[in-house]
Every structure is written in structure tokens, then in C-alpha cells.
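DM from R.C. (forwarded with permission)

"hey, sorry to bug you on a friday — could you get me a structure for this? deadline for the figure draft is monday and I only need the backbone to look sensible"
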Amino acid sequence: MKNTIILSILSLILLISNNSYSQDISGTYRWSYDNGRNNFEIYLSVKNAVRGSTPTSFKGEHCGVFDDGKRMDCSYEEFSINLNKVSQNVFTGTILSAYARTIHDIKVTYLPATDQIHWEVTLQRSGQIYFPLNVIMDK
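My reply, with the result:
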């Protein structure tokens, strides 16, 4: 009986401490360069949400507009981003380029002090893409 109570308390402490370090990165993030000639925006939402739990995977859409709108890579009404938590505030996954129809590996790091993310394409595969490779994005 005593062991069961101690085990229950330890489990509760671990659950609370794990959730306190998890981060919900849902929302819209933007990056702009060259006086607005090049823009990139992503929208992230929780994938497979479970009520009462902290999310660890996200899905999203993206839109990259370059050269004053001459080149676009946008995934309207199609989820193109998949992310999974790998450590505190760090998520890895993939993005499907709507322009080239190729999949690229990405890493997103949440920066809690500024409520920004560090967006990074960690493996660029073949095909022309119109989104940045390594930038800080504002919420």
C-alpha cells in the first residue's frame, strides 16, 4: 500500500514536470526580407490533440512569396508541414514544397524569451523551393 502511494506521487511529479517543459507552438509565424519583396509565413496547429495533455506534434501550412510575387510556394488548404518534439522547444519534421512537390527536412526551435521560432531547412532535396533555409520568424 505504501509503495503504491509513493509510486503514484512520483508518477504525478514526473507528469507535471514533463508538461511544464513542453511548448505549444501553435500559431502563425512570419518572416520578411528585402522591404517585403520576399515573405514566408507558416501556420501551425496541434496534430492529434488529446484533451488535458501537452502537444508534442504539429501540422501546418506554408506560403512563400518571392521576387515581388513572381515566385510562390504555398500550400493552400493542404497540410505541408509535419513536426514532432525531439527535446525542450526543439521540433523536427518535414515540409512538402508546393512548388517543386518535394519533401525537405526541417527543424523548428521555439525561442520562449521572444516568442519567435528559428526555422531551418536541415536537408534540402532536389527541386526549386521558395521558402527560406535558415531564419528567425516572428509570431
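R.C.: lifesaver. Confidence is low (pLDDT under 50) at residues 5-21.
me: no worries. The first strand starts at residue 27 and ends at 33.
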